[in-house]
Design brief:
Blueprint lengths: L9 H14 L4 E6 L5 H15 L4 E6 L2 H8 L20 H12 L3 H11 L3 H14 L1
Parallel strand pairs: 1-2
Helix pairs in contact: 4-5, 4-6, 5-6
Length: 137
Amino acid sequence: MKNVPPVADIESALEQILKEMKRQNKRLLVTVDEVYNTAYVKEFASSFQIFIRQNLPVFLIMARLYANIHNLEDERNLTFLYRTPKYFMDPLYLKLIENSYVKLLNISNEEATVLAKLTKGYPFAFQALGKFIWEST
């Protein structure tokens, strides 16, 4: 290994890694689920902005309710998020959730309707509630 000076901070380390990935024609996809406007997320988003300005091969997917993403966009140094592509997804179709619960959990249509409504169409709630019911039967 070459004599390389120690890295001063995590952002510098990531920058070196991303430059090497670019040299090797590789890319990095970062996914963040349930993103909130926290100090850590703001710090990461700020670093991410620097990486994309340097044309480094890093890509980001953040998922959360629109209000939480909008809170992040309003941060003074993170307004670049306004210019990023956004894909808004509708909730899952409740009838599809009901049918899945009836078939997979062997419950009545009435019970499945109640459970489906509890999920409000959120995919994670659909999975988590289904798993909970499955394990409790």
